[in-house]
Amino acid sequence: MLSDSLLKKFDQLIARYPLKRSAMVPLLLYAQDEVGHVSEEVIAEVARRVEVRPIEVVEVIGYYSMLHRHPVGKYNVQVCTNISCMLRGADEVFEHCCKKLGIKNKQTTPDGLFSLEEVECLGACCGAPAMQINYDFYENLTPEKFDALIEELKKKEPRSKM
Ligand code: FES
């Protein structure tokens, strides 16, 4: 069940666009923030509101790496391994991320804190290798920088989750 405040936000966003379907991605992002992922219920509701078939919403979700069909960790780590990042060591960095977190591509740590995903270009090529965690970008990534960041995020968590 989506909250009343989210449904109100849906109405406001849709009203901003000449074509209702243009509001699809913002609606999906706000819904994902509330639900934790883009559930079947979210897909159905967004499709109904922007007047497209649910499969069209599914197709859009498939294009954007920041939209998730399944629950992810509290911190969703997305490491770019596309050409610019690859040329500046992204494959090695990604391998290090797997080791540091103890998980592989598209997996989540047992405590639900971190998910890891190898993604295509994040649009931050000038700072390659680049990574995104939730809505924050990190550039010129090195294994050392990654470790420091992960430790910093762990410190923010209540002791029970560390
Ligand atoms: S190739 Fe990695 S951010 Fe563009």
Q: Which short descriptors sum up this protein?
A:
Arc Repressor Mutant, subunit A, Glutaredoxin, five-stranded mixed beta sheet, 5 strands, binds FE2/S2 (inorganic) cluster
Explain this structure.
The protein is α+β, with helices and mostly antiparallel strands and 162 residues long. It has 2 domains: 4-63, Arc Repressor Mutant, subunit A; 75-161, 3-Layer(aba) Sandwich (Glutaredoxin), CATH 3.40.30. It has helices at residues 4-16, 24-35, 40-50, 54-63, 83-87, 90-101, 143-155, and strands at 75-80, 107-108, 114-119, 131-133, 136-138. The protein has a 5-stranded mixed beta sheet, with helices on one face. A hairpin with a 2-residue loop joins strand 4 (131-133) and strand 5 (136-138). Helix 1 (4-16) runs antiparallel to helix 2 and helix 2 (24-35) packs antiparallel against helix 3 (40-50). The chain is globular. 24% of the residues are buried. The mean pLDDT is 95. Bound molecules: FE2/S2 (inorganic) cluster.
